[in-house]
Structures are given as structure tokens and as C-alpha cells.
Amino acid sequence: MPNPDFTVKHLGEATIDSPLNGVGFIPEDSTVIYGKDSREVIEEYTSTGKLSAFEQAGPRAKIYHDPAWTHAAILTAGGLCPGLNDVIKGLTRTLMLRYNVPIVFGIRYGYQGLIPAYGHEPMMLTPDSVDSIHEVGGTVLGSSRGRQDEVVMVETLKRMNIKILFCIGGDGTLRCAHDIVKEVERRGLNISVVCIPKTIDNDINYIDKTFGFETAVYATNSVISAAHNEAKGTPHGVGLIHVMGRDSGFIAAYATLANTHVNYCLVPEDPFSLYEGEHALLPSLERRLRERKHAVIIVSEGAGQHLFEEESNRRDKSGNVLHHNIGEFLQEKITAWGKEIKLDLSVKYFDPSYLIRSLPAHGTDAVFCEMLAQHAVHAAMAGRTDVVIGHWNDRFTHVPIPVATSSRKKIDINSSLWDSVKSVTWKCYR
Which sequence positions are flagged as catalytic? Predict the structure, then answer.
């Protein structure tokens, strides 16, 4: 199967000298090779005579937008995520202090803020107003879900004389940003739309990690330890932890490796059964409880949906399926199983989902947020559009939005990551 087209859209020729001093400018033809396996790279080059590669992100010597005449806007959409305020701060400071952009608007409550009928007045962002926002979780701009009318939104951008729009969010946010780009193109306007990938699920394709994910993994540590303590505090105790991961189980997998008290890691990518078969959970859990007297289970929200009698037909405002609650389901099934096999067990249930996503960014995650923000500004000022800032092979990249949203990134159950998870858990169902 051929690799996607990584060609990035440009508004036009960049002819203005960059105001940045003392930086290493990225050549216009600088790329980051997509292939990570040398055999695949050689095979592609041998068969096609070229290599699939992302455009490398970073400051350009020539820019497209004249800073003195540029108004920029920032919005956050979708669910909360650690690091949103870090990105808002990084964007504002880079625009105003590095590029001397005079006006930066903060659009309130996501894409609703571009629809006048909602009445959300924009904020004026300045280096002073964002000075301390990185210290708190959430987003100072507010957020919302659901698509809005791109015709009305672009009319708002035009009326406000906005030349650059930054959209911070997950795949739903990116798709809406792409709709705005299409309307901008239809009108022949010169507005750059640049996205920063936000999802603690880490499930945006062609991007090796998204901001907030590392903090989410870190935040599970104390919960796992608490679940372990509760489980060991009683004969046949079970600590059951429900974490986010609608379609991808990266949080559960990495949390398991970060705190190896976890004995079972259940993710959407690796189906399991309750009673029978090679991957039957409850017989394995019984063996562990009889042998070790305790167990800790972590489960992604999207795992085990096939175990419910009916598929969920509910969706959120972004169009995502609202899954059945697998955590509460397992709590009930494990408790009933214990009675059936006459094992006096105790299940302690933990659901830290909203606690985790509303935290401020932690450690190197905050560093990552700042670097994403800087690269987003560099891309926008250079006239890139319909693009999301990615990270690949230890380099920041420009990923076309249609490519990033073409499918979700999932755990490869044949990968070293999943092998590592199995090696530290009872996932092999001994």
C-alpha cells in the first residue's frame, strides 16, 4: 500500500525576511523520512526512486505573513487535556515577542467562539495575560465539542481581519479546521490554519506522540499504587482502574509499564473474553487470586465493547461513539464471578479519567507543549496551512490535516510495546 501524500499547502511565496535573530533556519527542502525501518526505506527507494518524507518544521528565513499587519487567533476544542494552557502561552509569546505580531485573539469555547450567535466575546491575549496560565489545568479559553458552520466561521475570521488561526485539539478539531481551510480556499483568502495535536489518548496518526499523554501516564501512578494497596489490604482483593482510551489503549499500556503493580492490561486492540478461550479473563483472575491473593486490572474505556449485548448507538457532539462503561461492567462481572466460584473477593473501583485530563502539564510534557507552540507559529508565519504540527523520528514535522485524520493510531499487538506489557502482566493468562 503506497504511503500518503505528505505535501503541505502553502498560501504563496514567502518573500519577507524573518524578524528572528540568532536561530538556525530550516531550509525549505528539509524533510524527515517517514520510514523507520531501513529495509522498508531501501525497498521504497528501489521500487519508486523516492522516499516518503514529512516537511520538517521550524523557522524559515523568509516568511509569508507581514507581522505588522497580522492578526492571529487561538482556540481550544474538544475535551480537556494537560498542557492546553502551556500551548496557548507558547503561541501568544512566540507570536508577540518573537515575530512582533500586534494582536492575538483568544477565541472562547472552541469553534462556538467563531459563531456570533453564541455571543462568546473573544479575549485579547498578551504576554502579561498568559504569564501564569501554565500553572493551572484546563484551558483559559474554554472549549466545546461539535462542528459549526464553516461559512459563518470564515466570515467571522474575515471580519476580524484574522490572518492566522491556531486550532488546538484532537481529530474532531482537526477535521473542523480542514473544513475551514476549504471555505477559505473557496473564497480565495490568505488565512493560515495550523493545528496543534491534543489528545491524551495519543491516537492521532503519523504523529508519534501528542501533548498531554505523558502527564496522563504520570498521573495514573498514584492511582495504580492506591489500587494495589487496596487490593493487598484484603484477601482476594481486586483493584480495578478505568482510564481513557476510546479506540486506542496507549494510556493503559504505558501506565502498566510505568507502574508494574498492574497484573492485567485490557485495551481495545486486543480483544478478551470473560469465561472461555485462550484470552479468558475470569479463569485467569481466579488462578491469580488463589495463588497471590490480590490483583490489579487497568482497562481502557474502549476495551471489551464486544461483551455488551447491544452496540452503543450514542454519540457525543463530535460524532464519537459513547462506549458502554467497561469499568463498571467488569466490576459487576468480577463480583458475580467470585460468588459463583465461592471466592470471597473484594473489588475496589477507580475511575480517574477527568482528574487526569484536567491537570496541568508535567515535566517534559510541558517542554513538549512549548516546542509544539513555537513550531506552529513558525509554520503559520511561513504561510503553511491545512497542517498539524507533528513529531516523528525525533524531529518536529508538518503533517497535512487530511493525512493525520485519515485513521486512528492504535497499538500494534505484535509490537515490542505490547510484548513488554505482556511480559510484566498476567496478559499471557497463565
Answer: 201
